[in-house]
Amino acid sequence: xxxxxxxxxxxxxxxxxxxxxMIPPLIVRTALDMGINLIAITDHNSGKNAAAVIxxxxxxELTVLPGMELQTREDVHVLCLFDTLEQLDSLQILVDQxxxxxxxxxxxxxxxxIVDHTGEFIQRESQxxxxxTNLSFEDAFKAVNGLGGLFIPAHVTRxxxxxITHLGFVPPDVPIEALEISRxxxxxxxxxxxxQIKDFxxxxxxxxxxxxxxxxxxxxxxxxxxxxEIKLALQNTKDRHFEVIHHN
Amino acid sequence: MTGATPEGIWVTLMAHSxxxxxxxxxxLSAVIITExxxxxxxxLAKANEKDVILLSTPHDNFxxxxxxxxxxxxxQEE
Lengths: 248, 78
Fold this sequence. Notes:
The complex is a heterodimer. Chain A is an alpha/beta fold. Chain A has a single domain (2-244), classed as TIM Barrel. Chain A has helices at residues 24-33, 50-56, 85-98, 106-109, 137-146, 163-167, 190-193, 227-234, and strands spanning 2-10, 38-44, 63-71, 77-81, 113-115, 121-124, 150-153, 179-181, 202-204, 218-222, 241-244. Chain B has three helices and three strands, in the order βαβαβα. Chain B has a three-stranded parallel β-sheet, with helices on both faces. In chain B, α1 links the parallel β1 (9-12) and β2. The longest helix of chain B is centred in the middle third of the chain and has 10 residues, at 41-50. Chain B is globular and about 30 Å long.
């Protein structure tokens, strides 16, 4: 088994709320500087910069999972993680059909840049990404799971766009494999503050919008950095292991 | 969920089946789903199972609550 330190919630300059420094080479360098060797690219409702980050990490000791942070019609944010760009492209088709036809207002929301692996500008994404799709939480789960992806509700305890705030509890008929909490909550306090999620595997992410936001606390012990292995590690089964570690 | 009072009416755009559990738990009088948001079959089945009254309206939250107010429905004193 190998040990992986993972940050699975990273925005690029495609997300209007992310800083201009969130370009592929700087994301890769910052992850490596922090000892992180597994990341996922998760822009709002779009995977269009994932390929560039994967390319920027080529020949580096860093695995980049293509993904997106999907917003369901209940205004719940979910990390959708995949092994391949083809899987992400399939989800993208569905998401594009499910977004309202509204153009981004740059002055209000910010720029949405698609870039190459060096961070060079290719084009602006004109579709407004910071909005909800018309996909229900259940439909989104079925789509991602059907494609072989991993579906992790994001920052579940947060007031804005958190699963617990919006839906009260994890819908019991959806076989959720892990939940994410933000940096702002102490994982030790989950049991008392949010007993409805204490039985789920919980990852903690930096929800990286700035290079300073990376967290290096998710430790996976598994054979290789794939979705299937991550799922096994989250279950702590077949000799795979996952835990949120503390740096003192 | 934290803002609701027992026997109250919940006006919401949310049509997800979790609203039924919340309504049953807090013993709400009814849930009014606004803007014709469509509850799925699962939501309707759970509402029938838990005897939760679901109402639907094409109006948005603001107009729905305004209409309730005109009918004499008042909020509890804060």
